[in-house]
Specification:
Rossmann fold; 15 strands; elongated; 369 residues; 7-stranded parallel β-sheet; alpha/beta
Length: 369
């Protein structure tokens, strides 16, 4: 099967969508499919099956920053690559992102499968564009949402039916990682962009409340961003117990999970899924996360993790203390989390996506009205 995968975000920038497209391409190729990935980027891609089209600029969206290529003249180049590759199906991620994805949708020369990754508390821009988006959506044969939250967000604007297929992870890589070198004592782990939406300042404040009475407690932070400055609010002795790793490659990340005791996921909202939570659970790491849409589809409160109100460092600290002080609770959440993560293994997810490709090929492009 010849499959074109389209990513709207810079291929050489860290991001959840890029990671999902990359891992899906690897699985499809391992299964014998021929794959072309189209994405913007600042540098040529190291993978020979990736073609970089367009140069990204960073814009603000959903309380975050996204690197996209909104220049419409990329459309012609993308159409040329698609026609030369002759895919039997085109899988477009975030099809309405004004970047590579939207241009690919407009130039599609085969049935389109589209995955909707995003969720937000509101989007005035998408609300205003909804009538146009519904017309564009007629070109999509199969619609996938990564969660019920993403489905609701997209469905309310473009209507139609969606299949929910969650994001995938390499469970074994997290389940069998060797612990990274660390100082003795319990360790809290935060992974993600250091920005307001991800709740990093909340994690720092929760650590401050816990660390005063726990002299050997540490906080390890994998990620970077403007809110790294939140640690400056800590007293010097506590600041010395925070390890800011900066951006960490996917290859090195599981080792930090294996060396930690509790994972903190204090995002404030705007999440459609929670891949960082699944990775932590796959590593057997007890999770304390915000009770927000998307996250509550991954973590079942009291079953395979603990959920707390978003933006509440006191609640985050209290739930974390429960796990640190109760080995039986920690062990129970660890075991349940591993079981939960198994359902997100890439072998399961890729099979489900490939079944949608086969259905799209049979159905063909929808008739345009």
């Amino acid at each position: 099967m010849r499959v074109a995968l389209v990513c709207p975000y810079a291929w050489d920038a860290p991001g959840g969508v890029q990671g999902q497209v990359r891992e899906l391409a690897v699985r499809l190729r391992a299964g014998g499919d021929e794959v072309l990935v189209l994405a913007p980027g600042n540098e040529p891609a190291p993978e020979p099956w990736v073609t970089v089209v367009g140069h990204p600029i960073t814009i603000g969206y959903n309380a975050s920053n996204v690197p996209i290529d909104p220049r419409p003249w990329s459309r012609r180049v993308i159409g040329k690559y698609l026609r030369a590759f002759k895919p039997v199906v085109i899988h477009i991620h975030e099809p309405f992102a004004p970047s590579t994805s939207l241009w690919a949708l407009l130039e599609a020369c085969a049935p389109v499968v589209a995955t909707f990754h995003s969720s937000a508390d509101r989007s005035l821009l998408l609300d205003a564009a909804a009538p146009l988006l519904r017309r564009l959506a007629r070109k999509i044969t199969i619609r996938i949402a990564v969660s019920q939250a993403a489905r609701t967000f997209a469905e309310s604007r473009i209507h139609g039916s969606f299949d929910v297929i969650a994001n995938g992870i390499d469970v074994d890589r997290f389940a069998h990682a060797q612990p990274a070198a660390s100082e003795p004592g319990p360790t809290l782990l935060f992974v993600g962009r250091l920005e307001e939406r991800k709740g990093f300042p909340v994690a720092v404040e929760a650590f401050r409340r816990l660390a005063g009475e726990r002299p050997d407690l540490q906080l390890v932070v994998a990620g970077d961003g403007k809110k790294r400055s939140a640690v400056a609010s800590l007293p010097p002795d506590l600041r010395a117990r925070v390890l800011l790793l900066g951006s960490v490659s996917n290859e090195r990340l599981p080792g930090y999970h294996a060396a930690a005791d509790v994972y903190l996921g204090p995002a404030l909202g705007g999440e459609s899924f929670g891949i960082v939570l699944v990775e932590a659970m796959a590593a057997g790491l007890p999770v304390v996360a915000s009770r927000i849409r998307g996250y509550d589809e991954v973590v079942r409160d009291g079953v395979d993790g603990l959920l707390v109100p978003p933006g509440d460092p006191g609640a985050l600290a209290a739930a974390t203390a429960r796990i640190l002080d109760d080995p039986m609770l920690s062990a129970r959440l660890s075991l349940a989390g591993r079981d939960r993560a198994a359902g997100f293994e890439w072998s399961v997810v890729a099979t489900a996506i490939r079944e949608r490709y086969e259905r799209a090929i049979v159905l063909g492009p929808p008739p345009l009205r």
